[in-house]
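Recall that a protein's primary structure is simply its ordered list of amino acids. Everything else, from secondary elements to tertiary packing, is in principle encoded there. The following example makes that idea concrete.
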Amino acid sequence: MDKYQEIDEIVQEITEEAVNFKDAAEPAEEIEALKEMLDALTRGSKLVLEKMDQYNDRRYR
């Protein structure tokens, strides 16, 4: 899986959870959707940092 596809999947997951948050009928459902969005955002941030580190490692060798 290439980096663009990985990021695209994370963006799609965030979008789905945003819809779930919007459609939530109870506060517990809202909290669950927010937790899932946070998880996806955290994974996305880690992925971006890893790719930046890989780029910098190649650049300065």
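Residues 27-59 form the longest helix (33 residues). The radius of gyration is 15 Å.
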